[in-house]
Amino acid sequence: MRTAFVTGGSGHVGGNLVRLLLNKDWTVRCLIHKDMWALKGLNIEKVKGDLLDTDFLCDKLSGCDAVFHAAAQIAIENVDIELMHKINVEGTRSVTRAALKAG
């Protein structure tokens, strides 16, 4: 069975992706930030950790066949530019580096 690592699984896009992967018989390992209600009752491996910790991510990517990065900070009002940059830019960089390092 194939294993996927998913970031942003508790969001709208990530949650739908997790369900699709499960329906396609993938094992899903999902990085959890805080809100897990969208994943309640799903047969997934929940991994609590920091999107910006490349070494942590590299360890958790071990044994995965694919990485799906759906974590993002999106805001329409009260935009926190620093937070958006941290999650959207630095987080993407961290996931990419971890995936490359993990092979």
Description:
The chain is α/β, with parallel strands linked by helices and 103 residues long. It has one domain (3-102): 3-Layer(aba) Sandwich (Rossmann fold). Helices cover 41% and strands 18% of the residues. It is built from three helices and four strands. It has helices spanning 12-23, 54-61, 81-102; strands at 3-7, 27-32, 45-48, 66-69. A four-stranded parallel sheet has the order 3-2-1-4, with helices on both faces. Strand 1, helix 1 and strand 2 (27-32) form a beta-alpha-beta unit. The longest helix has 22 residues, at 81-102. The chain is globular. It starts with a strand and ends with a helix. 24% of the residues are buried. The mean pLDDT is 92.
Structure, briefly:
This protein is α/β, with parallel strands linked by helices. It is 41% helix and 18% strand. The chain contains three helices and four strands.
The low-confidence parts are none
Number of helices: 3
| CATH fold descriptor | Rossmann fold
CATH superfamily, by name, is: NAD(P)-binding Rossmann-like Domain
Number of strands: 4
Across the major sheet, the strand order is: 3-2-1-4
Task: Please tell me the total number of domains.
Answer: 1
- What is the CATH C-level name? Alpha Beta
- The general outline is globular
User: What summary fits the major beta sheet?
Assistant: 4 strands, parallel
H and E string: EHEEHEH
Distance between the termini: 18 Å
- CATH architecture identity: 3-Layer(aba) Sandwich
Helix-strand layout with pairing:
Layout: E1 3-7, H1 12-23, E2 27-32, E3 45-48, H2 54-61, E4 66-69, H3 81-102
Parallel strand pairs: 1-2, 1-4, 2-3
